[in-house]
Amino acid sequence: MLPQKASGRASGIRSPCAIARCAISTRMENESVAVERISPMVAIADTVPKQASRFRFILDRRDVLGTMFAAPAILFVLLLVGVPFLMAVYYSVSAYTIYDPSWRFVGLANFEQIIEDPAFLQTLSNTFIFTFGSQLLGLILGKFGALLLLRPFPGRRLVRALIILPWAVPIALATVAWQWMFDSLYSVINWTLIALGVVTRSDAPNWLGNPYLAMLCVIVINAWRFFPFAIVIFLAGITAVPQDVIDAATVDGAGFWRRNYQIIMPMILPIVTIGLIFGIVFTFTDLSIVFLMTMGGPVGATSVLGFAGFQTGIVSGDVSHGAAISLFMLPVLLVVVVAMLRFIRRREI
C-alpha cells in the first residue's frame, strides 16, 4: 500500500517546467483576447475618414518658404549691384557730365576714346600686374603658412587666431601703418637696412617715389592683406586630403616636396582655384590701397581701373567716361572667371 500512496502523491506533484509552460500559455491566451477586443476599435478608427484641411498655411509650402528666405538676399543684390550697373550702362553711352547734365546718346564713343588713351592702357596694364602679382605672392605665403600651422608647436592656437588680423584689420588703418613703413625719411625698413650695413643713407630706396618700387609696395600690401584668406583655403584643402593617400605616398618613397606638389596640390586645386577667383575679383575692382597709399602715382605708375574710374567720374566730374572705365572691368573679369571655371571642370572630369 505504501508504494501506491507514494506513486499517487508523486503523480499529483507538477514539475517546474510544466508550471512554466502553463503560465506562458495562459499569458498568450490573455494577450490574444485583448488583441481581439482592441482590433475592432482600431479597424473602426481606421475606417473613419480624416477631415481634409480646406486651407493650407502658406509658410508650410517649401517652395514659398524658400523663396521668402532668398528674397532679401536677391533684393539686396539687385539694389546694390543691379541698379548701379544699369546706371553705369546708362551713363557710359551718353555725354553726361556734372557740368553738362543733359543726357545725349553717343553710343560706344566713350569706350573708343578711353581705349585710344595711352594713360588708360597703362592703367589696364597696372591693374593686371597688381592683381596677379599680389594673388601669386599671397598664394605662396598662404601655402607655406598653412604648412607651418599644420605642424605642432607651442602657441599654435594663438598663432592661428592672430594670423587672421591682416584680413580683419580695416584697410585704412593698415595702409597708414604701411605708409609709415615705406616713408622716404622715417621708413623702418630703410633704417633696418642701414643698421645692417646693406645700404647707406644716401642710397636708401625711395619706396613710394620710384615707379617700380611703388608698384611693388602696393602688391606687397595687398598680398599681406590676402594671405590669411589663402591660409584658410589651404588649411581646409590639405586637411580634407585622406591620410591614407599621404601615408601610401610616404611608403612609396615620396618626399616632402613630391607629396605636396604631385599629390596634395592636384587634389586641392579646385578649392584653391575658387579662392583665387574671389581674390582676383576683389583685387581687380579694389581702389582702396592705391587711393590711400600712392594716389595712383608716381606719374600714374600704380593707377588701376577702379582708381581711374573714381578719379574720372567722381573727382573730375566726367561721369560718362568714368562709367565706361568701370564697365571695362566686366568683360575682363568675365573672361578670367569663365576660363578658371572651365579649368576646374576639366580637372574634376
From TrEMBL:
Superkingdom in the source lineage: Bacteria
CDD domains in the record: TM_PBP2 (cd06261)
Name of this chain's protein: ABC transmembrane type-1 domain-containing protein
Keywords: Cell membrane, Membrane, Transmembrane, Transmembrane helix, Transport
Family: Belongs to the binding-protein-dependent transport system permease family.
Keyword Mitochondrion in record: no
Organism the protein comes from: Bradyrhizobium canariense
Pfam families found in the cross-reference section: BPD_transp_1
PROSITE patterns (UniProt xref): ABC_TM1
